[in-house]
Amino acid sequence: MPLRLGPLTIPWPGKARDDPYWDYFLKTPPGDLRNSVVDMIRQAPEGNVFPVKADLHTPEITSSHLKELARFLGADLVGVAKVPPNLDTGEGYPFAVVCAVRADHDPRQARGIGGQVPVQNGLYVTFVLSAYIRELGYRATAKVETDGERLAAAAGLGTLNAEGRLVTRKFGTRVHVADVILTDLPLAADG
Protein backbone atom coordinates (compact mmCIF):
# COMPACT_ATOMS: atom_id res chain seq x y z
CA MET A 1 0.00 0.00 0.00
CA PRO A 2 1.50 3.39 -0.95
CA LEU A 3 2.24 6.12 1.60
CA ARG A 4 0.20 9.28 1.11
CA LEU A 5 1.81 12.64 1.85
CA GLY A 6 -0.79 15.20 0.83
CA PRO A 7 -1.27 14.96 -2.94
CA LEU A 8 1.90 12.84 -3.34
CA THR A 9 2.01 9.07 -3.19
CA ILE A 10 5.23 7.27 -2.31
CA PRO A 11 6.51 5.06 -3.85
CA TRP A 12 5.76 6.73 -7.14
CA PRO A 13 3.17 4.95 -9.28
CA GLY A 14 4.67 1.96 -11.09
CA LYS A 15 7.65 1.68 -8.71
CA ALA A 16 8.56 -1.86 -7.69
CA ARG A 17 7.57 -2.89 -4.15
CA ASP A 18 10.86 -4.69 -3.55
CA ASP A 19 12.86 -1.43 -3.53
CA PRO A 20 15.46 -1.66 -0.72
CA TYR A 21 15.40 2.11 -0.20
CA TRP A 22 11.63 2.08 0.31
CA ASP A 23 11.99 -0.82 2.75
CA TYR A 24 14.68 1.11 4.67
CA PHE A 25 12.49 4.26 4.69
CA LEU A 26 9.66 2.29 6.27
CA LYS A 27 11.38 -0.10 8.65
CA THR A 28 14.61 1.45 9.93
CA PRO A 29 14.24 3.82 12.89
CA PRO A 30 16.29 7.01 12.80
CA GLY A 31 19.78 6.71 14.27
CA ASP A 32 19.38 10.09 15.98
CA LEU A 33 16.04 10.77 17.69
CA ARG A 34 16.43 14.46 16.88
CA ASN A 35 15.53 13.40 13.33
CA SER A 36 12.15 12.19 14.58
CA VAL A 37 9.27 14.64 14.71
CA VAL A 38 7.44 12.21 16.99
CA ASP A 39 9.88 12.66 19.87
CA MET A 40 10.06 16.43 19.38
CA ILE A 41 6.29 16.82 19.64
CA ARG A 42 6.00 14.48 22.63
CA GLN A 43 8.72 16.36 24.50
CA ALA A 44 7.19 19.79 23.82
CA PRO A 45 5.84 21.34 27.02
CA GLU A 46 2.10 21.76 27.33
CA GLY A 47 0.82 25.31 27.55
CA ASN A 48 -1.04 26.83 30.46
CA VAL A 49 -4.78 26.58 30.93
CA PHE A 50 -6.47 29.91 30.23
CA PRO A 51 -7.64 31.28 33.61
CA VAL A 52 -11.21 32.09 32.49
CA LYS A 53 -13.43 29.27 31.22
CA ALA A 54 -15.13 29.97 27.90
CA ASP A 55 -18.91 30.05 27.64
CA LEU A 56 -19.82 26.78 25.96
CA HIS A 57 -22.84 25.29 24.27
CA THR A 58 -24.28 22.03 25.49
CA PRO A 59 -21.87 19.09 25.85
CA GLU A 60 -23.32 17.59 22.66
CA ILE A 61 -22.64 20.73 20.61
CA THR A 62 -19.20 21.19 22.18
CA SER A 63 -18.36 17.58 21.27
CA SER A 64 -19.57 18.15 17.72
CA HIS A 65 -17.41 21.28 17.36
CA LEU A 66 -14.36 19.53 18.82
CA LYS A 67 -14.77 16.57 16.45
CA GLU A 68 -15.15 18.91 13.48
CA LEU A 69 -11.92 20.70 14.46
CA ALA A 70 -10.11 17.35 14.82
CA ARG A 71 -11.23 16.27 11.36
CA PHE A 72 -10.14 19.65 9.96
CA LEU A 73 -6.69 19.09 11.53
CA GLY A 74 -6.39 15.69 9.84
CA ALA A 75 -8.06 13.06 12.03
CA ASP A 76 -9.96 10.48 10.02
CA LEU A 77 -11.97 9.22 13.00
CA VAL A 78 -12.81 11.06 16.24
CA GLY A 79 -14.75 9.97 19.29
CA VAL A 80 -15.31 10.86 22.92
CA ALA A 81 -15.31 8.26 25.70
CA LYS A 82 -15.91 8.51 29.41
CA VAL A 83 -12.70 7.65 31.23
CA PRO A 84 -13.37 4.30 32.91
CA PRO A 85 -12.82 4.19 36.68
CA ASN A 86 -10.18 1.46 36.31
CA LEU A 87 -8.03 3.76 34.12
CA ASP A 88 -5.85 5.55 36.65
CA THR A 89 -5.10 8.95 35.15
CA GLY A 90 -4.27 10.39 38.55
CA GLU A 91 -5.72 13.72 37.47
CA GLY A 92 -9.49 13.28 37.63
CA TYR A 93 -10.17 13.68 33.92
CA PRO A 94 -13.73 12.53 33.12
CA PHE A 95 -13.40 12.40 29.31
CA ALA A 96 -11.02 11.03 26.68
CA VAL A 97 -10.94 12.42 23.16
CA VAL A 98 -9.72 9.71 20.80
CA CYS A 99 -8.43 10.53 17.31
CA ALA A 100 -7.39 8.00 14.69
CA VAL A 101 -5.70 8.40 11.33
CA ARG A 102 -5.44 6.03 8.41
CA ALA A 103 -2.20 4.04 8.42
CA ASP A 104 -1.06 2.21 5.31
CA HIS A 105 1.67 0.56 7.40
CA ASP A 106 1.43 -0.39 11.06
CA PRO A 107 3.74 2.03 12.93
CA ARG A 108 4.52 -0.72 15.45
CA GLN A 109 6.23 -2.75 12.71
CA ALA A 110 7.26 0.09 10.38
CA ARG A 111 9.61 1.95 12.77
CA GLY A 112 11.29 4.01 10.04
CA ILE A 113 10.59 7.62 9.23
CA GLY A 114 8.12 6.62 6.49
CA GLY A 115 6.30 4.19 8.75
CA GLN A 116 5.90 6.82 11.45
CA VAL A 117 3.92 9.24 9.26
CA PRO A 118 0.54 8.21 10.82
CA VAL A 119 2.04 8.74 14.30
CA GLN A 120 3.22 12.21 13.29
CA ASN A 121 -0.17 13.07 11.79
CA GLY A 122 -1.97 11.88 14.92
CA LEU A 123 0.39 13.80 17.21
CA TYR A 124 -0.21 17.00 15.26
CA VAL A 125 -3.96 16.62 15.73
CA THR A 126 -3.78 15.84 19.45
CA PHE A 127 -1.19 18.55 20.15
CA VAL A 128 -3.28 21.30 18.54
CA LEU A 129 -6.60 19.96 19.87
CA SER A 130 -5.35 19.77 23.46
CA ALA A 131 -3.90 23.31 23.15
CA TYR A 132 -7.30 24.52 21.91
CA ILE A 133 -9.05 22.93 24.90
CA ARG A 134 -6.59 24.63 27.29
CA GLU A 135 -7.28 27.94 25.56
CA LEU A 136 -10.98 27.40 26.35
CA GLY A 137 -10.02 27.31 30.05
CA TYR A 138 -10.16 23.53 30.59
CA ARG A 139 -7.44 21.03 31.37
CA ALA A 140 -6.26 18.76 28.56
CA THR A 141 -3.26 16.50 28.24
CA ALA A 142 -2.23 13.95 25.62
CA LYS A 143 -1.18 10.63 27.15
CA VAL A 144 1.00 8.07 25.37
CA GLU A 145 0.58 5.24 27.85
CA THR A 146 -3.22 5.31 27.84
CA ASP A 147 -4.89 2.28 26.20
CA GLY A 148 -6.01 4.22 23.13
CA GLU A 149 -7.40 1.28 21.19
CA ARG A 150 -9.68 0.24 24.06
CA LEU A 151 -10.86 3.83 24.51
CA ALA A 152 -11.38 4.14 20.74
CA ALA A 153 -13.68 1.11 20.87
CA ALA A 154 -15.49 2.64 23.86
CA ALA A 155 -15.92 5.85 21.84
CA GLY A 156 -17.61 3.88 19.06
CA LEU A 157 -14.81 4.16 16.49
CA GLY A 158 -14.71 0.39 15.96
CA THR A 159 -14.32 -2.91 17.74
CA LEU A 160 -11.35 -4.80 19.13
CA ASN A 161 -10.23 -7.98 17.40
CA ALA A 162 -8.70 -11.04 19.10
CA GLU A 163 -5.26 -9.36 19.25
CA GLY A 164 -6.74 -6.25 20.88
CA ARG A 165 -6.32 -4.15 17.71
CA LEU A 166 -8.94 -1.62 16.69
CA VAL A 167 -10.93 -2.65 13.62
CA THR A 168 -12.93 0.15 12.01
CA ARG A 169 -15.70 -0.04 9.46
CA LYS A 170 -13.97 2.39 7.10
CA PHE A 171 -10.28 1.33 7.38
CA GLY A 172 -10.28 -2.13 8.97
CA THR A 173 -7.05 -2.51 10.95
CA ARG A 174 -5.23 0.05 8.78
CA VAL A 175 -5.65 2.73 11.40
CA HIS A 176 -3.42 4.33 14.02
CA VAL A 177 -4.93 5.59 17.27
CA ALA A 178 -3.16 8.79 18.29
CA ASP A 179 -2.22 9.71 21.85
CA VAL A 180 -5.44 10.06 23.81
CA ILE A 181 -6.44 13.51 25.07
CA LEU A 182 -7.68 13.44 28.66
CA THR A 183 -9.78 16.47 29.55
CA ASP A 184 -12.27 18.00 31.95
CA LEU A 185 -14.02 19.86 29.12
CA PRO A 186 -17.75 19.04 29.44
CA LEU A 187 -18.39 16.67 26.52
CA ALA A 188 -20.95 14.08 25.49
CA ALA A 189 -19.52 10.58 25.30
CA ASP A 190 -20.08 8.42 22.20
CA GLY A 191 -20.48 4.68 21.96
Task: Give a description of the structure.
This protein has a single domain (3-183), classed as NADH Oxidase. 29% of the residues lie in helices and 18% in strands. It is built from five helices and nine strands. The chain has helices spanning 20-27, 37-43, 59-73, 117-135, 148-154; strands at 3-5, 8-10, 77-82, 95-102, 140-143, 159-160, 166-167, 175-177, 180-183. Strands 3, 4, 5, 8 and 9 form a five-stranded antiparallel sheet that branches. A hairpin with a 2-residue loop joins strand 1 and strand 2 (8-10). The radius of gyration is 17 Å and the shape is globular. The mean pLDDT is 88.
Terminal residue distance? 30 Å
Instruction: Supply the CATH architecture.
Output: 3-Layer(aba) Sandwich
Determine Rg (CA atoms, Å): 17 Å
- What is the overall silhouette? globular
Poorly predicted spans: none
Helical segment count: 5
In total, the number of strands is 9
What order do the SSEs take from the amino end to the carboxyl end, as H and E? EEHHHEEHEHEEEE
Counted up, domains total: 1
- CATH class membership: Alpha Beta
**Biggest pleated sheet:** 5 strands, antiparallel
The helix fraction, in percent, is 25-40%
Q: How much of the polypeptide forms β-strand, as a percent range?
A: 15-25%
Quote the CATH topology.
NADH Oxidase
What class would the helix/strand composition place it in?
alpha+beta
Mean of pLDDT = 88
